[in-house]
Each structure stands twice: as C-alpha cells, then as structure tokens.
Amino acid sequence: MKYIKLFTLLAVLFIGTNLQAQTSEKDVTIIELTQVEGEFETNNLSLTPGKYQFRIVNKDVDKDLGFVIQKAEDAGKDVMKTALKDSFSSELVKKGEAQYTGVVNLTSGSYVYSCPLNPTPHYKIEVK
Predict the structure, then answer these.
(1) Where do the domains of the chain lie, and which CATH numbers do they carry?
(2) For 76-104, how does the pLDDT look when each residue is reduced to its tens digit (9 = 90+)?
(3) Nearest-CA neighbor of 127 among 111, 101, 108, 103?
C-alpha cells in the first residue's frame, strides 16, 4: 500500500515538469512494453547508449500500473530514491490504456525495469 501512495505522489510531481504523450526531441527511440498480470511480456532489453522513451501498456490488468528504471545495483532498493531521472510513467496506467515515461538517457551499463504496483520482477536492460 505504501508503494501505491509513493508512486502516486511521484507521478503527480513529474506530470507537470517533464513528461509528454510523445516527445519532440530528436534521436529518441520509443520502446513499447506491455504489462499483463504480474509481469511484462518483454523480459529483457539489449540497447545501445542513447535517449529512450518507454510506452507502457496495461493489457487487461484490473489495477493501475506504473513503470520505473533503476541501475542494476539498486534493484530492490527504494525506487523513490534510486529511480533514473524521467523513468517513471507519466501517470498511472489504467486497464487498456498506455502512458509514456519522460526521455531517459541510458549510458553503457546494466539497468533494471519493473512495475512497483503490479508488482513485477526486475527485468534487465543491458546498454552496450
């Protein structure tokens, strides 16, 4: 329950400052990730360094969902303190809907993505 309150607060803070339905920035790759009950359909990502925006889709999950990216070494730690800048979804993702993150700059390294509300496992993002 505390994650829901924390995530809702964070989502509200980020909406007005840095998130849009789509980005107008150049050289940004949009990646769509679909959540079903308890998991993402895509388990791991292998990317090159660059700017990314994630589109999170709620596929028939009867509760609001979210999204966050952390460095791999921070997996399992408080997402409110360890989330990458702009990596939260813009709003809670309702059943049958989609939301975007801000533009996330990923450099070489290991990251994880998850939904702290669903909740899902931590899935790997390798950036090389």
Answers:
(1) 2-127 (2.60.40.420)
(2) 899 999 999 999 998 999 999 999 999 99
(3) 108
